[in-house]
Amino acid sequence: MADNQLVALVRAAIANIDIPGGKKLGNYPGLSEIIVTQSAIAFAISVEPGMEGAFGPVRAAAQAAAEKVANGHKVLVSLTADRDPGATESQPSKAQQGGGLPPKTAVPGVKHVIAVGSGKGGVGKSTVAVNLALALKALGRKVGVLDADLYGPSVPRLLGLDGMPVVRDDEFFVPQEAFGLEAMSIGSMLKGDQAVIWRGPVASSGLRQLLRETAWSDLDILIVDLPPGTGDINLSLCQQNELAGAVIVSTPQDLALIDARKAMDMFKKLDVPLLGIVENMSYFVAPDTGNRYDIFGHGGAQKAAKELGVPFLGEIPLHMAVREQSDTGKPIVATNPEGVEAAAFAELAARLLEAGGL
Ligand code: ADP
Questions:
Q1: Which of 1, 261, 282, 288 has the fewest beta carbons closer than 10 A?
Q2: pTM here?
Q3: Is any ligand 1 atom within 6 A of the Cβ of residue 325?
């Protein structure tokens, strides 16, 4: 069925739902556009602050009505109150810091959730997240990866994931599997450049459901690859879910900049323990001689970690093999477990377990 047909069906199915004030959902200006992805249908109902409770049944009715016509897609309906206008991206408002919000809850099927963040894109956050997950698995843990980086979902490419996750009868996703990891990516659900239309509340709520309505099978650790920076998705993930902690990935140059520190600041304000900093592309190992070159004046992350009182988890070398292997869906820790890169990730994983008491 074409996407626009599905949109029309959903619109018709939810149009006559009663909303507070005696009107119908179909004419309500707070109803967002309806987004159809490969495996999901998503929309948001935005309400005045304080009206969330009154609109709860509307959300439930919209969810049920949309599910009836969803044609195998998972339905993601979010209810959002307007954002505090005083809140900015880098300075979470009081409400965003936790005051007045519902308490954080544990993620079903997962013992410990660890977020991997960075100040900006391109520092190797996803590469580190995936290889760290594999290194944790090699240490005997049951591990999953959730790719929440809506604006650059790279886990499917890094792990060579194909196709879409299956939706079970009870509306839970079955996680995909690769190299012994359970994996889910927002990227598997998007078509083309859909990230640009999955804005704000729809994106946050879609990811919330991806996290909480995937049938993770008693994982010890779920690594969540966050979007870079301190945007809304990061805020809501940290506000709503119990996290064991966060890891920040940076390059030696990046820490000279303010971005990575801003990301750390966000985690602190949201009461997410900072488990440590990783310096990626830290030094260069010549493939022929094995000699090490500190091409970017490495050590910035270690210095910053010390200043900030955060554990320094380790350095990952800049190596063509890391790039080539990951870009072809063969992460280096799985394909060359005896190599120096895998050893660096193994050390990282061990320090992380220690830092988090996991
Ligand atoms: P981010 O998630 O921060 O945007 P990615 O993990 O997608 O970054 O990495 C960006 C690029 O850098 C990719 O092509 C990746 O293969 C490459 N890369 C990441 N880490 C390394 C490394 N240690 N050595 C060489 N290339 C790397």
A1: 288
A2: 0.80
A3: no
